[in-house]
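#onboarding

Welcome to the new folks! Below is a worked example of what a typical request in this channel looks like: someone posts a single protein sequence, and someone else replies with the predicted structure as tokens. Don't worry about understanding the tokens yet, we'll cover that in week two.

Example request:
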Amino acid sequence: MAAPGRRRLVRLLISLWDLPVHRTLHDVTPPRDVLLFEHERGRFFTVLGLFCAGQGVFWASLAVAALARPPVPAQPPDAEFPDRGRLDVRSALWRYGLAVGCGAIGTMVLAAGLLFSLRSVRSVMLQAGGKQVTLTTHAPFGLGAQFTVPLNQVSCMAHRGEVPAMLPLKVKGRRFYFLLDKAGHFPNTKLFDNTVGAYRSL
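Example response:
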């Protein structure tokens, strides 16, 4: 009587181990590093960096040119300028305003290009054990920059099927979202959804 009962207990344990919960727990703790996302766009970000650098130089040169005092034409000694002071003030205001505007435009272009490069994700790697995740961004000029954070400090703000183009990823302690382009490659969608693609309250 004991032998059949023991066999039934073994079968029950085996069936419980084969449940999706146990398979999921095993999947999220891989024995080696697993690539979850990859999107190589080095050429695009190289061109973007050169474009932003060129724009910065262009608008900075305009600002410097606006600050430069225009040459004063030679006038006869007996010439009268009743409103010379008022004209100088207006000219100075116009020049300073133009310089500030050019500087602001150049700064915004550089900041936008830098921020987009630093927040566009090139690859996501789940480290062995499933406790750490490594994110690699394109960085300016496509040079690449990576960092590793605990998995519980990463939260995906939307499911892959809910967004048309960019998947926003929140990392605790870092401002702004990291962006995963859906045009990239997801080698293991199930593991991605259960780990990096899961929503967490940070």
